[in-house]
Design goal:
Length: 132
């Protein structure tokens, strides 16, 4: 089964901790040993794993993405969001996490994040938990 999650983003570049959604999907799946895949179907957003203990980390990541990929007048994409496509390409569209004993096998400080690169928007991501 695939779980579909809808979120509303509020900023152009922002990190949303979605770990609880993935944990709940693992519990609901009943899978004891396997993997959980989180997938983003958008070309200007992504999924990543990073620190979830200090909120300054995701603030710093947002700052770095915006400094590294600013909007430029030379970009040719008619929609005007080439910088968001570049950010999402570097972040990636999915993460896979090992499931052990019906729990995500994440590090102590790790969380799973939906990364908005072109918000605010209504977004969707998918979670698939598989036996392995």
């Amino acid at each position: 089964m695939i779980k579909t999650v809808h979120i509303k983003t509020k900023e152009q570049t922002a990190f949303y901790n979605i770990t609880s959604y993935v944990r709940q999907a693992v519990i609901e799946s009943g899978v004891n040993e396997g993997i959980a895949v989180v997938f983003c179907p958008h070309t200007t957003a992504g999924i990543t794993i990073n620190e979830n203990a200090d909120p300054d980390v995701v603030c710093d990541l947002s700052l770095a993405l915006n400094k590294t990929f600013p909007d430029r007048p030379q970009f040719r994409h008619a929609e005007g969001n080439s910088h968001a496509h570049m950010k999402s390409t570097c972040i990636g569209c999915s993460e896979t996490v090992i499931v052990s004993d019906n729990r995500l096998l994440l590090g102590t400080w790790q969380g799973i994040y939906f990364v908005e690169c072109d918000g605010p928007r209504d977004r969707t991501f998918y979670i698939k938990v598989m036996r392995g």
